[in-house]
Specification:
The chain is mainly α. The radius of gyration is 20 Å and the shape is globular.
């Protein structure tokens, strides 16, 4: 396995921290910046919006660039945004910095897996992709809980500064460790970027991505504000929140593995339906049992499992849709799914914030259930409309 792939892993670790650490620190950041909790929740929203824009659009526009130059640009943008966020004097400055960092996140994840697969060769391509996203999983399982604890015990600013440092380390590693200026397949044609941008408007692909948007918006309407729910409703201390984040992160890592096996066994439609229904039932449980710390620990862990079990299921489904309805658009489809995931985070955190400011923090999970139910209805409608088509991805589709 080429060593540079492990540098990709380090960068993915930083991205995982950047996206999810603020979720456990919304109340701490709100107090520091002297704003409401729902306003600091917008730091998650803006980051996700940056990733949403960058994943499909910038992937298409940089189709003719060398992969090394694209990776270096993403690392630089991410590091700069994360560094500015760490020293932000006020909320608007924080939000702009988070949007910039999110742009680096979206483009990196859209490019890194296919680049790793090419560098490793066809026989080790699957393992290479797993190594890259292993960094993201480690961030969820270990980095986020530790960072949540440190941010609550010391300050959130050094935590964001450390994330920027990881990004800078990744940039240096890419600069000196990545020698082959790979280009994407069929990306040397001047028309390639225009062709990729056109694929973004494919109705079938957009419909598949919208399922991802609503499924995840429901999950993150509940999870984005889980820290204030735990402190204000469940009655645990702010220092204890990190334990609940740990349960979420560990089961998220397990869920990612389960989701892959479940997709192989049940097919993408069966796995996707199982995951979305699981999210709906779990967030309803969070609403109903918010006063019990023990049950909340179990439910938050289950939410992590179902949410990240959906990553391979929904991604495989969208790639399968691309294979049938938009041939040669697998890269765009992968970017759209990343955009869908981050759009879901943005929409969920936005709706959760609106819920807090109107009817109270206790009802964020109820809104989450409604949003994921919309995704379930869309998924069921698509399955019934295309009865008998399971959108399985052919060999090499994901490369």
């Amino acid at each position: 396995m080429p060593f540079v792939i492990y540098i990709f892993t380090l960068s993915a670790f930083a991205l995982g921290l950047a996206e999810f650490v603020p979720i456990g620190l919304t109340d701490v950041m709100a107090h520091s910046l002297n704003v409401d909790i729902e306003q600091t929740g917008s730091a998650i929203t803006t980051y996700a919006l940056g990733a949403t824009f960058a994943a499909p659009v910038l992937t298409a526009l940089t189709a003719r660039w060398s992969r090394k130059n694209v990776m270096l640009m993403t690392a630089l943008v991410f590091t700069a945004g994360s560094g500015i966020a760490a020293v932000a004097a006020n909320l608007p400055m924080l939000l702009v910095a988070r949007f910039v960092a999110g742009m680096g996140h979206g483009l990196f994840l859209a490019v890194a897996s296919s680049t790793a697969a090419r560098l490793a060769g066809s026989k080790k391509a699957g393992s290479a992709v797993a190594v890259v996203f292993g960094g993201f999983t480690i961030a969820m399982a270990i980095g986020v809980p530790i960072s949540t604890y440190l941010g609550g015990a010391i300050s959130w600013r050094p935590v964001l500064g450390a994330i920027a440092a990881f990004g800078a380390l990744g940039f240096v590693g890419l600069l000196f460790g990545m020698r082959d200026p790979l280009r994407v397949f069929d990306g040397d044609s001047p028309a390639s970027a225009a062709h990729a941008l056109k694929a973004l408007l494919n109705v079938k692909l957009l419909g598949g991505a919208l399922v991802t948007v609503f499924a995840y918006s429901g999950s993150f309407a509940a999870y984005t504000y889980i820290a204030p729910v735990l402190t204000q409703v469940t009655g645990v201390s702010s220092h204890t929140v990190s334990i609940f984040m740990l349960s979420y992160g560990v089961l998220a890592a397990v869920g990612n593995v389960i989701g892959g096996k479940m997709t192989d066994r049940l097919g993408v439609n069966g796995a996707s339906l199982t995951v979305v229904i699981g999210i709906i039932l779990t967030v309803l449980g969070i609403w109903g049992f918010a006063h019990s710390a023990i049950i909340m620990a179990v439910l938050i862990a289950l939410l992590g499992m179902f949410t990240f079990a959906g990553v391979p299921a929904l991604q495989a489904r969208l790639l399968g849709i691309a294979e049938i309805h938009a041939p040669h658009a697998h890269g765009v489809a992968a970017g759209l799914n990343i955009a869908g995931f981050n759009s879901g985070i943005a929409l969920g955190s936005l709706m959760g914030g609106v819920t807090i400011s109107t009817i109270g923090v206790s009802y964020t999970a109820v809104i989450g259930a409604v949003l994921s139910s919309i995704g379930l209805v869309m998924l069921l409608a698509n399955v019934l409309q295309n009865r008998g088509v399971d959108y399985r991805v052919g060999q090499g589709a994901g490369h």
